Amino acid sequence: MRPPAVDDKVRLMQDIPELSLSRGIRGVVRSMWCAPCMAYEVEFPSTGESYNTRALLMAEQVQVDESPDDFEPVSAA
Questions:
Q1: Which of 25, 48, 53, 66 is the most exposed place for a label (fewest CB within 10 A)?
Q2: What is the share, in percent, of the chain residues with pLDDT greater than 70?
Q3: Domain limits at 53?
Q4: Domain assignment present for 25
Q5: Is 74 among the domain residues?
Q6: pLDDT for 16-42, tens place per residue?
């Protein structure tokens, strides 16, 4: 599996309960951080709240989602 790039759709590989994010939810990579180690800022659609959630995630927490479907990327504000 290739590493994510900016604007890639990704799938969360583990729950993050403190942010109310569940394994399997899809989001969009908004930026990449490389120091001290590779991390990805991912924006997820709102989950019952009136705002989107952004999380800084490690490579092992996300996987590129290349499946064609009706997934709507989160619009950049």
A1: 48
A2: 84
A3: 9-64
A4: yes
A5: no
A6: 999 999 999 999 999 999 988 999 999
